[in-house]
Design a protein that fits this description.
alpha+beta, 5-stranded antiparallel beta sheet, about 250 residues, binds thymidine-5'-phosphate, 14 strands, binds aspartic acid
């Protein structure tokens, strides 16, 4: 199944399980079909989600690495297994928004679909007990979750990732509405893009569909009980695969 021997389970999250390997700098991530929303108040399964998200995250990490972005990705070792660099995850969710949706609409009153003049970066404190609250940079400093220099670096990296992902998804005829990133520090203290990028962690709308519900190709289909959840993830994966193979032929 994998090149590394599967060691102790060190972390089980809502969508992935992390295992040690015989190399202390390498972990194995198993992508689950489980889906949760609203801080796990809603639970379910999305057929083949583990394999689809592992494949999508692999393509996107490889694309970002080719653009010079440091990531924790090493290899996809099986359809739902990824080898990654062992990092110390910062307890922050970094959200980038290009179009108003979700909690931004609830917090600000902006209409769904409002194009933002420039991308908005937000930080949320990863803490299930508190419900992952929105944090200012001063809150981050107060709790010493990251240094002020790291916060500036996180913002810069998040905005660069947004630029790269928007142009990639544009080729897929997908609109990148918003997304959530996580970062970790490797053994040498370098910040690496970590976790995953997938329809679980992004809002993606079909550029060619106007209907506000029919255009949704991400986890909002699960959150809002819109149906065809697995088919939407599959559509995203298929479009990415097509663009990746077109781009590799063109090179
Ligand atoms: P929000 O509008 O609910 O704050 O979500 C913003 C983006 O972050 C959206 O693309 C979904 C993603 N997200 C996660 O990946 N995990 C989460 O726990 C939440 C709340 C949002
Ligand atoms: N993944 C999150 C949870 O279950 C929330 C979400 O993605 O909506 O808590």
């Amino acid at each position: 199944m994998t090149d590394n021997n599967l060691g102790e389970k060190i972390y089980e999250g809502k969508a992935k399980i992390l295992y040690r390997t015989d190399d202390p700098n390498v972990l194995l991530a198993y992508f689950k079909d489980d889906a949760t929303a609203f801080n796990a108040q809603k639970k379910g399964q999305i057929e083949h989600k583990g394999e689809m998200n592992c494949a999508i995250a692999t393509y996107l990490f490889q694309y970002l690495a080719s653009q010079g972005m440091p990531t924790h990705f090493i290899a996809q070792t099986a359809p739902d297994w990824m080898q990654v660099v062992a990092v110390k995850i910062l307890p922050l969710e970094v959200v980038v928004r290009n179009i108003a949706a979700g909690s931004l609409c609830q917090r600000t009153g902006l209409d769904l679909g409002t194009e933002l003049r420039s991308p908005l970066v937000e930080f949320y404190y990863k803490n299930d007990r508190l419900g992952d609250p929105l944090f200012t940079e001063d809150h981050i400093e107060l709790l010493e979750l990251a240094t002020p220099e790291q916060v500036q670096q996180l913002k810069q990296m998040a905005l660069l990732i947004d630029r790269h992902l928007r142009s990639f998804f544009e080729q897929c005829r997908l609109i990148l509405v918003d997304f959530k990133l996580e970062f970790g520090l490797d053994a040498s203290g370098q910040l690496l893009l970590s976790d995953e990028i997938s329809p679980d962690t992004c809002r993606l709308w079909d550029r060619d569909v106007a209907d506000p519900k029919a255009r949704i190709l991400d986890k909002d289909r699960f959150r809002q009980d819109l149906g065809n959840v697995s088919a939407a993830y599959h559509e995203v994966m298929a479009r990415i695969q097509t663009v990746v193979s077109q781009n590799s032929r063109d090179r």
